[in-house]
Amino acid sequence: MNMRQTTIAAAVLTALTIGAASQAAASVYARSYLDISNLVILPVTFTGPGGTPVVNTTGVKVGNYTFSGQNTASLNNGPTAADTKVCSGIFGGATSCGASGNRLDPLVVNAAGSTTIQGENTFTFNGPGAGQYANADGKLYTASVAGDASTHTRNIAESELQTGTAAAAASVIDSITKFTFQFSTTAAGTLMIAFDAIQNMLASINDPAGAAHQATGTMNTELKISNDSNPADFVLYNPDGSATTGCVTVGTSFSCSEQLDPFSLNTSVATSTDGTSSALVNSGSFLTFIGLMGSGNYTFTLSEKKSTTLSRVPEPGIMSLLGIGLLGMGLAYRRKNNA
């Protein structure tokens, strides 16, 4: 090998070495985790001391219910790993759902090529700095309409890039049919919706070798009650950290009064700058009263979704150096052949 070829080869080796070292230290990471527990939807009257709500199920009848869950994850534009479960039943009657503590449990999914594997129902935080992966898991432990004292859900989506270019994970406690049940009332009344929530979200970037990167974790939570005889009448409760803006009524069938809304369950964390992070860690209790203006048949729906999206573009200077080195080697080889 002549001097020119030796120099070019050394340049290529240097570029590869620098690129590999920089990529090994890189991390573009996001997670979104939510635990909702002690969720109850109860008819109440304000006849207790001081006007406190007292449960009153007179004239209220619960009917059918359906639960569904879906976990999906993909890494570097590879195939999407997914698992979906659906079950249904009749309040106080037959059900295809699991027993209390395991009402609905779609399997954890780990995207093809993941170097860190999330275990079934572990809900641990692997990163940042754990490897290159995308995983998602969700579970419905208990459901009040299936006979449990309250409803409990837990979901996580987590992904990280070190040398790759794209990752996405999503954990959804609803699909098309969602967490749904029907009920009827014989008179106007009030429903109390109360639950506890634990939130943990993080987006972070430590990637000096990246020219462009983005890490985003998102969370969406919606509770909806609609009038079956007039679907244009409904109330949407989207906890947003404000007791005045998270509940919206459409039509004339409902009223809404938020009492406790300590932090947003419809939010995101994001960063696109190396050496920075964005985090949300909260826990608290939520309480809202929904007024039903008359008798009728109604449908309640809980929708939850957690997701992450990542992107990473390697530093163009390193790639340019590598490209120049490879081009030089090709020209040197061609000249040798011509000679």
TrEMBL record:
**InterPro entries in the cross-refs:** EDSA_1-like, Ice-binding_C
Where does the secretion signal sit in this chain? 1-26
- Species, as recorded: Sulfurirhabdus autotrophica
Residue stretches making up the Ice-binding protein C-terminal domain: 313-336
Q: What is this protein called?
A: Putative secreted protein with PEP-CTERM sorting signal
Q: Which residues cross the membrane?
A: 316-333
For this UniProt record, give its keywords in alphabetical order, as a comma-separated list: Membrane, Signal, Transmembrane, Transmembrane helix
Pfam families given in the database record = PEP-CTERM (PF07589)
Q: Out of the domains of life, which is the source? A: Bacteria
